[in-house]
Design brief:
This protein has 207 residues and is of the alpha+beta class. It has helices spanning 17-25, 55-77, 104-114, 149-156, 185-189, 193-202; strands at 9-12, 29-32, 37-38, 42-43, 84-93, 96-98, 118-128, 133-144, 178-182. The chain has a single domain, classed as Maf protein, CATH 3.90.950.10.
Amino acid sequence: MFTRPNDKKIYLASKSPRRRELLRQIGVDFELLALRADPARGVDVSEDVHASEAPMDYVARVAREKGAFAWNMVLARRQPMRPVLSADTTVTIDGLILGKPANTREAEDMLERLSGRTHQVLTAVAVHGMNIAEHVTQVSDVRFAKLTRDQIRAYCASPEPYDKAGGYGIQGAAAVFIEHIEGSHSGIMGLPLFETANLLRKAGYAV
């Protein structure tokens, strides 16, 4: 028999430390529900881009698939029925999807492409539960200053670019690259809090 928890928690289907920090910022208590993401051991939800897939379609699909897979895990394991929150973030410029760089060369190439230009950061958030399966995608415009070769090399010599879409993190040293933002600071970090709170309220979780 499934149980309805008497606590006030959600499940977070994400390993991102930034998303954990942002949820704590707005007082959301959560339990991690980890999905396998190691290609050597198999992945629960592929983050590969489909042929001709637009950035908006891609990020929304991955967030929805992560949430649906995690919700099915809850059902299969007969865990307490809490809302499942999932998200995915990508950076796009020139119609290209910039994911997490695999190496220094990729990170440097990404920053060279972003240098002196405006790009978009897309974060899709999905909530799955007993009576809900909804998502929303938040779009922010970010303009980088013109970066020197030395700035790019110094930043890519740090560990910061390699677990972040687009090869940079707004909450880290790359903040000095950013001339202007139009959109959601928390969305650029990986979880737009306004949109997230609205989805959680629809799922019956008071924020």
